[in-house]
Design brief:
about 450 residues, 2 domains, single chain
Amino acid sequence: MKNPTNKSKEKEQFKSIVKDSSGKFAKTEKINISCRFCGLKNVVKFGYNITKKGKKARYKCKDCNAKFTPSAKLIKQIKFKTNHKDIENVKTKELKKLCKLIKKSIYPFLDFKAHYTAKYDTKKFLDLLTHVAMNHDFTHNGSQTFRFVMKENTPASNTLLYHIRKSDIQELRNNFKKAFEEIFKIAKRHNVFKKRKLDVAIDLTDQLYYGNKNDFMVCETKPQKGTTHCFRFATINIVENGRRFTLLALPMHAFDEKYKIVNELINYAKSKISIRNVYVDRGFFNIKCIMTLEKQKVKWLMPAIRNRAIKKLMKEHNSPKVLEYLMGRKNFDQVKFKLVIVNDQEKIKRVFATNLKVTEDNAKILFQEYGKRWGIETSYRVKQDFKARTTSKKYVVRFFYFMFSACLYNLWILVNIMVGLAILKFIPKEPFITAKMFGVMLYTLCSYLDPGGG
């Protein structure tokens, strides 16, 4: 039989079993440290920071999701009453308040212009579409499950699709642009983008299409998942952690030229924020696109396409190497920029095209800089979670679903920022509110409490 004193020692030396990032089980010691932000003690180790004085342990609070390194200069702790439940209550309260604000300030821009005698108004249609999007469902099945969830008479799928189909594309484009601008204004009022240069990324996303290649706005794409056709959209995103807003999304026609799209996106971004760097993929490695970036007088970075000239330079030069490169032929358009040949972690030669100030000594920093572009890929992946499924061949339906998913994504980012500021007093780098929680709160809150749907 074990000694009672030994049992108390065992309790003091208790080690909990948790899963690490790789999915494997690992032991973590119980830590007697309070979170520097919320003051609670539900803290676990979270790697370390390398400082001039050596390695410093880093911790993560499971309650408020903050990451910190203990130091003498602590931020004043937020006063919570008891435990995790108190944080959840504040989070829910702030989320409800923001969802009311969203329905009041954003939904009017997406008005379906239903007749005043209509049974359902715009808010009820958008609540249905939000439910369908959050469940990544088709509109027909989603309308039935929505009626079951809400226990009310809700719009039918054919009614929703009727209102979308009768919409004008240009009018929808303008309305969504206004909605994006209103979301951005709310964020700006809370000093999210105050006096700071931000990195942006430009990219194209293809929504695969299995209909007739001659249908309106259908573009060609590389063979994937049984088709070579798609609807294409160009977007410009802020790619800072915690601030990954989609500033603007543009539909692309098969005959639209990339450099004109790039020019329009950068002009719009400049009207909203101060740009630090622009990141694009190798699909924009051509004379007109690079000339457009140069004319816009922005710092830019992209991987170079390995054509014959680039491959020849890779053979002739060891890495790291910074070269002045002239693209184009005599008596035609020409543009000069830097080619940077550098080895990655696996000692494989990579080539970047850029106008950034880079030397052979710090060439490897380009990997870190270009890594920010993956923020736009992450945003596309998350937008799929906000997008309803459809088999409709009507372009207006596809357009509305994509733009609405981008709008929901921006609203989710905004909610995370504002709830984070309310609870943590800083902008969290990782999502503080899950997409599912936000979506469910948005379509269930105040939807059917009054005739106006507000």
